[in-house]
Amino acid sequence: MEPVAQGWPLYAAWRDAQADTDPKLAISEQDIAVQLYTSGTTGKPKGAMLRHVNILGGRRKAAEAQMDWNEWGPDDVSLVAMPVAHIGGTGWGIVGLYNGAKGVVAREFDPMTVLDFIEGDKISKMFMVPAALQIVVRQPRAREVDFSRLKYILYGASPIPLDLLRECMEVFGCGFCQQYGMTETCGTIVYLPPEDHDPAGTPRMRAAGLPMPGVEIKIIDEAGNSLPPDTVGEVAIRSISNMAGYWGLPEATAATVGADGWLRSGDAGYLDADGYLYIHDRVKDMIITGAENVYPAEVESAIYGHPHVAEVAVIGVPDDKWGEAVKAIVAPKPGCTPDADDIIAFARTRIAAFKAPKSVDFIEALPRNASGKILRRELREPYWAGRTRRVN
Predict the structure, then answer these.
(1) Which of 219, 249, 281 is where one domain is finished?
(2) Beta carbons within 8 Å of 203's beta carbon, 6+ residues apart
(3) What's the whole-model pTM score?
(4) What's the domain count of the chain?
(5) When you count CB atoms within 10 A of the terminal residue's CB, does the N or C end of the chain come out lower?
(6) CATH of the domain at 349
(7) How far apart, in Å, are the Cα atoms of 15 and each of 2, 9, 10, 19?
(8) Nearest Cα to 111, choosing from 94, 85, 131?
(9) Tens of pLDDT, residues 19-67
(10) Are the C-beta atoms of 367 and 374 separated by less than 8 Å?
C-alpha cells in the first residue's frame, strides 16, 4: 500500500515512484517554474506565477555584485527553517543552492531543532522572520549554544522591533541583514547591510535598506505619479524578478503590474536622499484618525519595549469622534498581568500622543499565517462586523 499522510501520498513515495530517465522537455527561462501563494494578510491568497528568469535572474545579479553578506564559500552551510510553501523558505533555499552551499532543510519550524541545527550542522547563514527569531532567542538554551560558526542572519517578512533586534545581536553575536521583498518579486529586492545595524538605534536602522542590484524603486501616489524624497506613498518596483502575474486573475494582475513593468507593492513608504527605502506599513493597514495618518508598525515598535508585552498588533477601530481610533492588541509575557493605561502611557513616551493607542485589548497569542505575518484582518473583524466598509 502506498504510504499516505491525512489521505495524501507522501512526497517521498511520489518522488521515488517516478522514472529516472531524462524527460527531454525543452524549458525556456520564460516558462513558469513555480506558483507560490501570497500571504493573504489583507485578503485571499493569490497564486503568483514565477518564471525561471524571475527566480534566478535577481540571484545572479546579487552574486555578481559581490556583497560581503552575500558571499558564499565552500564551508558555508545554509539553514532553511521557514516554510518552503512561502517565498521566505523557497527563495532562501534557492540562494544557497545557486551559490553551491550545503543546505539543511527543516521539516517544520521548531526552536529547539533550530538551535540543534546551528550547533550540530555548523550553520553559517540562515533566514528567519522576526516572530521566529523571537521564539528562538527566548529559549533558555539559546544562551548556551555555540554560535561561533554563524556569520549572518537575514531577517524579513515583517518589521523587527529594535528591542528584539538588540537582543538577537547580543545573543547570536553575528552580522544581521534585513531583507524586504514579497512573493510577487521572488523575495528580496531591498537589503539593509550589516554595517547599518547599530544596537544604539540610529535613524538608518528604521530603514528597509537599499535596492538590490538590478532593482529599481520609486514612490508613487494613487495616480501613479512619482513622489519626491521623504514623501510617503506606495512603493513601486521594477526588476527582472517581478512575477509573470497572478494565476487565473487577469484583473488583479493588471492592477498590480503595469504595462511599463512597474509593480505596485501595496506597501506605504518613502525614499530618503541617499536612496534608502523606509517602510511605514501596508497601504491598507494605515489608520486615519482625525485626518492624521498613523502606521501600525511605528506604534507597535513603540509598545514592544514594554516589559510586560510579548507581542503586539495595532489596528484601527471605528470611533464616532475621530473616524478611526488606534487600538493595540497585546499578548502578555508569561506570568505578567499588564495594565492597559500603563502601556498607553509607555507608548506616549516614545511617539506622538495622537499615534499612541486609545485602548488596549489582551489576547493569548496573535493570529499569524505560516510565514509569521500577523493576520490583521482577523483582529479587525470583530470591531468592524456589520459594516459594509472597513474605513470610517
Answers:
(1) 281
(2) none
(3) 0.74
(4) 2
(5) N
(6) 3.30.300.30
(7) 12, 10, 9, 9
(8) 131
(9) 999 989 899 999 999 999 886 555 567 899 999 999 999 999 999 999 9
(10) yes
